[in-house]
Design goal:
about 375 residues; Dna Ligase, domain 1; D-amino Acid Aminotransferase, Chain A, domain 1; 9-stranded antiparallel sheet; 4-stranded antiparallel sheet; binds adenosine-5'-diphosphate
């Protein structure tokens, strides 16, 4: 796998259950996956030579982060290596502008958008009356966790306009943000996990709680799953595709963006589903039968974020108290350094009474202090 973060760590742990050897390429063996993969290779997944040389040593190549060198992946694929997700799909997904054009071409619902060369062009378009408030600006490349997203509601927000090449879209009147993780193998078998509802930390603009089942109207839930299936088939991806959608106040579903890999919105599946998203990703990329996505229990997942006031070597205060709560499963990623709002771990709370699960998830969040 390219990348050695927490997603790589959890993927390697799933592979270990099947006695598969895993290799990871990333900057430092101290990263989360470093302690669990069979072989860690130090290098830069954005560098052509590092990716190419790494790929030459493995049987199947996958990713845990999108921002990798796709030229090397294209060459490796042409030379016969199995690369999942396919580099051509990855090239589209890495660029938010190309992603939106892809949905438009494939008749997949998404909000209206325009593409701009840079922030200055956007400001000029506002002056010329070509672009009207409110809108959302997203840098085309390298955005994650809300970085690279600016909500521009009025003139007072013009200072927040980002400088790089961007996609500008309508500000959507969102009722609920949901995600559907879907998997596909080379035989074309496809399976979805049940939709989850995402609740954000308003300051960090990061997902804080994920609730599954999402409490959606049955028809809407089914439609969300159908859209996820249509998206993975259109991309022709093997492995996982996490599809983030907006349910609008009018009851419409719009695709926001996708990630062709295990995703934060699927962490709960480790504890709450028959098959975890990590095992499902492996089944997809290795062309094995996809596993059942049935739920064993309803769950609320809470991201454990670094304390807003601390940076430095990490300590976990209150961990034992959290572990003592029934149905609470703690997952720590093993990052040596904590930073404000850094994703340091997650907890999955299992309880078929979702109100109780949410109350416990809030208790975990308030009890566990990630400090230095
Ligand atoms: P990232 O790739 O950084 O996660 P997203 O596209 O998911 O960026 O945007 C981050 C968050 O910003 C979304 O989860 C949502 O809350 C808000 N957002 C994004 N696009 C829109 C939009 N068009 N209208 C309203 N809110 C939006």
């Amino acid at each position: 796998m390219l990348g050695g973060g927490q997603l790589g760590k959890m993927m390697a742990l799933a592979a270990h259950n099947w006695d598969l050897a895993t290799w990871a390429l990333d900057t430092s063996k101290t990263f989360p996956a470093g302690s669990v993969v069979s072989h860690f290779v130090a290098g830069n997944f954005k560098n052509f030579d590092d990716v190419y040389n790494f790929g030459k040593q493995v049987d199947v190549l996958t990713i845990e982060i999108e921002h990798v060198n796709t030229e090397a992946l294209i060459k490796l694929e042409a030379e016969g290596l199995k690369v999942h997700p396919s580099p051509s799909a990855l090239n589209i997904i890495k660029d938010k502008g190309l992603q939106k054009e892809f949905y438009q071409k494939n008749n997949l619902p998404t909000s209206s958008f325009t593409l701009w060369e840079n922030g200055e062009a956007i400001k000029q378009a506002i002056k010329d009356g070509q672009l009207k408030y409110p809108f959302v600006q997203k840098s085309r490349e390298a955005g994650y966790d809300g970085k690279g997203v600016a909500v521009i509601r009025a003139e007072a927000d013009l200072g927040s306009i980002l400088s790089p090449a961007s996609m500008v879209e309508d500000l959507v009147d969102i009722d609920t943000e949901i995600a559907v993780v879907v998997a596909r193998n080379e035989k074309g078998e496809v399976k979805t996990f049940p939709p989850v509802a995402m609740e954000f930390n308003p300051v960090a603009n990061l997902v804080e709680f994920l609730v599954c089942p999402a409490g959606l109207d049955e028809k809407i839930a089914k439609h969300a799953e159908e859209l996820a299936i249509a998206a993975i088939n259109a991309y022709g991806i093997c492995g996982l595709l996490a599809v983030e959608l907006f349910l609008t106040k009018n009851g419409e579903l719009l695709i926001n963006e996708v990630a062709p890999r295990p995703h934060n919105s699927g962490h709960h599946t480790i504890d709450s589903c028959y098959t975890s998203q990590y095992q499902q990703h492996l089944r997809g990329i290795l062309n094995l039968p996809l596993g059942s996505t049935k739920m064993k229990a309803a769950s609320v997942m809470v991201n454990l974020l670094g304390h807003p006031d601390y940076s430095g070597p990490v300590n976990y205060d209150g961990l034992e108290e959290c572990m003592a709560m029934e149905g609470v499963k703690m997952h720590l990623y093993g990052k040596a350094i904590t930073k404000p709002y850094r994703k340091m771990g997650h907890a999955t709370v299992l309880d078929n009474d979702l109100n109780k699960a949410m109350a416990k998830a809030i208790k975990v969040k308030d009890t566990l202090k990630i400090i230095s």
